[in-house]
């Protein structure tokens, strides 16, 4: 965890900047300045946004992934409470033309799944990295975050 | 997500595996555009914002601009779409014994087919396995227009040439030789959808109401064209397949691609044909499958089942008499869509029954539809099976095809 803090120095400063400069003070939460949110990517086009205050990683597919897939018509999500290892297949995203497996970007336990996707799979196209999130994983090995790609490194994998 | 896999699924579902028979999928994907052939409409597609992909050795439009596959599919079901199918192989067989020659190569009854009528048929190998499926249009006893699959071009042409040589050198050919003229570079456009006829009617003085499903004619089209138009298609909708000389293809495409007609790519073509229960060679048909297994017994001429002397007759007759070991069926699958390769099981004993050969979430029906092969006896409507998708069993029900009700024009009621 400490090493993540060091590694993620740059995003921390951005987070601080945002909390101080851009948010109206009325929304300011005292703990925000102590929270570190790190976002990392995989070559398989998943992203995970890790919040060290909760220990939860929010898993989604990238905007690039949704645009390559086309209209998403079905999303298969993992079962709550399942223990997953990094790289395990945890679900799938299907468009009319193709099925793509989703792999766990990090190890841990599935703490939440986005039930809205069962009835509105199109959220994955509209808002892949926010409303279309897939699941939350309680990380068992937060150090795995370090080995994932930064946004720049991820973009280089397909650009 | 593994995009390699998703691309592979796409390529397979579109029947592209032939591109890279001996190379890895990665190499297949890396095939440079310069090695791919182009139809006469390549520049037209690019100018219209097409996303071009390799298909059957050609660079073909997958989709246009930002129109998604579902929207494009629905447009064809509710209005009209135009498809470039110029990659398909068009040819003419001519000669005094052309009917007998094609009745040797296929199990179809071509002598009793009336002029300017078409039929789906199959080229069979010596064992009765399907080398390709094709559309044969009879113009006269001594002239046939034939359309075969682009993905089977090399195999088919070799087969035709080899058998033409044998025919013409033998006794049958001595009554008059048969020649094949390849219409290389010719355009082929499919105009499909409930508004296809009303749109085409605005461009011709020919009364299209007279041209019923399965018929064809040379039709004068605005602009001084005289084109071979066959009523039918690969979508389950009313529509036309229009053959165009090379120099006129772009102009005719421009003429046909106007509102309400929308350019439609391979993506929607695949989902439309699957809803219509139509086979894709390479997925649903192959050399190891007889027409009886494939549910295509109807393409075999009635009077030819008993005594027809066509190549592969023995294998076909065996399956006709004893029943085929397996049969092509339609499936509706609960939960996840079952794609090509998904295994089918007996739900109680878990014994394997077969596999899915094509499958999609159906845009029209909002259900997961598939076709595949199951052991004989498991093919009856309503039979429940298990289909394995991502290591989980999903409930499947054998469902008659086509999945949608076809809307062919069979004449005024």
Automatic annotation (TrEMBL), chain A:
Cellular compartment(s): Mitochondrion
Entry's Gene Ontology cellular component terms: glycine cleavage complex; mitochondrion
Organism domain of life: Eukaryota
Lineage of origin: Eukaryota, Fungi, Dikarya, Basidiomycota, Agaricomycotina
InterPro entries per record: 2-oxoA_DH_lipoyl-BS (IPR003016), Biotin_lipoyl (IPR000089), GCV_H (IPR002930), GCV_H/Fam206 (IPR033753), GCV_H_sub (IPR017453), Single_hybrid_motif (IPR011053)
Family: Belongs to the GcvH family.
Modified residues (N6-lipoyllysine): 97
Subunit structure: The glycine cleavage system is composed of four proteins: P, T, L and H.
Protein name: Glycine cleavage system H protein
PROSITE patterns, sorted: BIOTINYL_LIPOYL, LIPOYL
Textual note on the cofactor: Binds 1 lipoyl cofactor covalently.
Cited function: The H protein shuttles the methylamine group of glycine from the P protein to the T protein.
Biological process annotations from GO: glycine decarboxylation via glycine cleavage system; protein lipoylation
Entry-linked SUPFAM superfamilies: Single hybrid motif
Cofactor: (R)-lipoate
Region span, Disordered: 1-23
Domain Lipoyl-binding: 56-138
A matching Pfam family: GCV_H
NCBIfam families: gcvH, PRK01202.1
Organism: Favolaschia claudopus
This protein's UniProt keywords: Lipoyl, Mitochondrion, Transit peptide
UniProtKB/TrEMBL annotation, chain B:
GO terms assigned for molecular function: aminomethyltransferase activity; transaminase activity
Catalytic activity: N(6)-[(R)-S(8)-aminomethyldihydrolipoyl]-L-lysyl-[protein] + (6S)-5,6,7,8-tetrahydrofolate = N(6)-[(R)-dihydrolipoyl]-L-lysyl-[protein] + (6R)-5,10-methylene-5,6,7,8-tetrahydrofolate + NH4(+)
Residue stretches spanning the membrane: none
Location in or out of the cell: Mitochondrion
Any GO BP: glycine catabolic process
Enzyme class: transferase
Entries under Pfam families matching the protein: GCV_T, GCV_T_C
Keywords, in A-Z order: Aminotransferase, Mitochondrion, Transferase, Transit peptide
Top-rank taxon: Eukaryota
Segments forming domain GCVT N-terminal: 41-302
Residue stretches making up the Aminomethyltransferase C-terminal domain: 326-405
Any one annotated GO CC term: glycine cleavage complex
Protein EC: 2.1.2.10
Annotated substrate binding sites: 241
Xref: SUPFAM superfamilies: Aminomethyltransferase beta-barrel domain, Folate-binding domain
Principal place of residence: mitochondrion
Function: The glycine cleavage system catalyzes the degradation of glycine.
Protein family per UniProt: Belongs to the GcvT family.
Subunit structure: The glycine cleavage system is composed of four proteins: P, T, L and H.
Identification of the protein by name: Aminomethyltransferase
Source organism: Favolaschia claudopus
Native organism taxonomy: Eukaryota, Fungi, Dikarya, Basidiomycota, Agaricomycotina
């Amino acid at each position: 965890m400490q090493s993540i803090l060091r590694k993620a120095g740059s995003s921390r400063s951005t987070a601080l900047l945002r909390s101080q400069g851009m948010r109206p003070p009325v929304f300011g939460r005292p703990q925000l300045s102590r929270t570190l949110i790190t976002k990392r990517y995989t070559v398989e086009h998943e992203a995970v946004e890790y919040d060290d205050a909760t220990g939860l990683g929010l898993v989604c597919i990238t905007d690039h992934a949704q645009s390559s897939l086309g209209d998403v018509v079905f999303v298969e999500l993992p079962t709550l409470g399942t223990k997953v290892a990094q790289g395990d297949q945890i679900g799938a995203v299907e468009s009319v033309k193709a099925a793509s497996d989703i792999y766990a970007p990090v190890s841990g336990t599935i703490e939440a799944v986005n039930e809205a996707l069962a009835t509105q799979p199109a959220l994955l196209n509209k808002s892949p990295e926010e409303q279309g999130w897939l699941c939350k994983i309680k990380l068992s090995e937060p150090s795995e975050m370090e080995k994932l790609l930064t946004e720049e490194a991820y973009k280089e994998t397909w650009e | 997500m593994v995009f390699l896999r998703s691309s592979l699924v796409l390529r397979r579902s579109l029947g592209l595996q032939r591109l890279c028979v001996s190379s890895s999928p990665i190499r297949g994907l890396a095939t440079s555009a310069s090695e791919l052939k182009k139809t006469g409409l390549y520049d037209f597609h690019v100018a219209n914002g097409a996303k071009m992909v390799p298909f059957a050795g050609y660079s073909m439009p997958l989709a246009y601009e930002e129109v998604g596959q579902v929207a494009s599919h629905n447009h064809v079901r509710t209005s009209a779409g135009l498809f470039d199918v110029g990659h398909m192989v068009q040819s003419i067989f001519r000669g005094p014994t052309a009917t007998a020659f094609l009745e040797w190569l296929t199990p179809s009854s071509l002598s009793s087919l009336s002029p300017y009528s078409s039929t789906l048929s199959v080229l069979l190998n010596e064992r009765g396995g399907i080398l390709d499926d094709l559309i044969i249009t009879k113009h006269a006893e001594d002239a046939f227009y034939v359309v075969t699959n682009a993905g089977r071009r090399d195999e088919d042409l070799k087969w035709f040439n080899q058998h033409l040589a044998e025919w013409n050198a033998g006794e049958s050919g001595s009554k008059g030789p048969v020649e094949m003229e390849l219409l290389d570079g010719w355009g082929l456009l499919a105009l499909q959808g409930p508004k296809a006829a009303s749109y085409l009617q605005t461009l011709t003085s020919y009364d299209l109401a007279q041209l019923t499903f399965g018929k064809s004619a040379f039709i004068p089209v605005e602009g001084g064209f005289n084109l071979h138009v066959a009523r039918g298609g690969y979508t389950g909708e009313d529509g036309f397949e229009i053959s165009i000389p090379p120099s006129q293809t772009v102009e005719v495409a421009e003429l046909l691609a106007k509102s309400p007609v929308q350019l439609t790519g391979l993506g929607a073509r695949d989902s439309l044909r699957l809803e219509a229960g139509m086979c894709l060679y390479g997925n649903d048909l192959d050399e190891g499958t007889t027409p009886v297994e494939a549910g295509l017994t109807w393409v075999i001429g009635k009077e030819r089942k008993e005594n027809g002397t066509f190549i592969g007759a023995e294998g076909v007759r065996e399956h006709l008499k004893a029943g085929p070991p397996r049969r092509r069926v339609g499936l509706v699958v609960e939960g996840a869509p079952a794609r090509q390769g998904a295994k089918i099981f007996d739900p109680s004993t878990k014994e394997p029954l077969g596999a899915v050969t094509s499958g999609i979430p159906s845009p029209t029906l909002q259900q997961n539809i598939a076709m595949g092969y199951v052991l004989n006896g498991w093919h009856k409507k309503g039979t429940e099976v298990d289909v394995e998708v991502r290591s989980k069993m999903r409930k499947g029900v054998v469902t008659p095809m086509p999945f949608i009700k076809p809307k062919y024009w069979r004449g005024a009621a």
